[in-house]
């Protein structure tokens, strides 16, 4: 079971989004150095690593995930990835493929903004030299803000009139304006609370002007679309100076409670080389090297005679990747980007089982492997309750026939108990009848 949330790769054309998707998934997205290579959103499955309880209970030899894999207690859980076609400045006004691309973002839970740190593509995604990508993060955020703010402001006057007439709660009125972006009321309330704590806007939305609305949209987007920035092509000339400038712009101020700049914090900037990852994965698949995504080095025929020999050209390219990427940065950054995106949302791994004595499968279907443990792992949002998870797992049998739940040690769980990692996230459900 892949997770129900989506990580969307965004950015200008030719920044490396399609290469990134190919590097981290098994998808075969088109790759080209011209605008609008990607017309429809490409989707794929990547894997998020976490500690599997099979190791804690000494059951690694019996851990057989239905989806993903488990290697000596390290679980690789599938997550959905989407590559949204490249945006260009003016997209919110219809430039390029404009609103069509922005509409795709509504299906995303977290964004990965792939930025060409090498300066070899301009703001339109066309080949160039010496382009300064310092503003690439800002203009993409501006386009998204303009898109959402424009839609909200178009309905603002009528919404405020209804708000005053019905004396609705501010969160209810605002939720009605942004629900189309996949936002829950709770998130809208959080945005309002953050604005109130800053004292930057009136608590009475009936008194808001356009600046107040835009300020709310900015905070709302920080919460609705948390963003990881992947500074890509780090092994290219000029990348170093561009990276340094971008990091300075988004450097966090210790003790500051100010809002994010362009929706970005330096903690969520990752240095990456998607093409290096693609090359390493390809050679590993062909048997020339031993390498796993996220490794800080690879093994060749010289260290392992069972691997194929490499020629001089291949060897030079591998050494360049080793020197300019792996030894310098510790990895290609591709796996770290996915991990950072999932961690931003704080998702909790849940292991539904049928039997708490042997941690057998959560369902008795014919596909369940005899004796297999911890076959299922589902990532859920923080704050998810036991009953909410039951409905997510099986909306008919477990929700309508729900009769209770318990966790390790035969500890009974309440319907409203919040699921917490390493506390009550191994769950057996009971159904009536």
UniProtKB/TrEMBL annotation:
InterPro entries (UniProt xref): Beta-grasp_dom_sf (IPR012675), G_OBG (IPR031167), GTP-bd (IPR006073), P-loop_NTPase (IPR027417), YGR210-like_G4 (IPR013646)
Domain of life, source organism: Eukaryota
Keyword entries, A-Z: Nucleotide-binding
Domain OBG-type G residues, every copy: 5-292
Gene3D superfamilies on file: 1.10.8.470, 3.10.20.30, P-loop containing nucleotide triphosphate hydrolases (3.40.50.300)
Tagged with keyword NAD: no
Gene Ontology molecular function: any one: GTP binding
PROSITE patterns: G_OBG
Keyword Nucleotide-binding tagged: yes
Cross-referenced PANTHER family: OBG GTPASE FAMILY, OBG-TYPE G DOMAIN-CONTAINING PROTEIN
Name of the protein in question: OBG-type G domain-containing protein
Organism: Coemansia asiatica
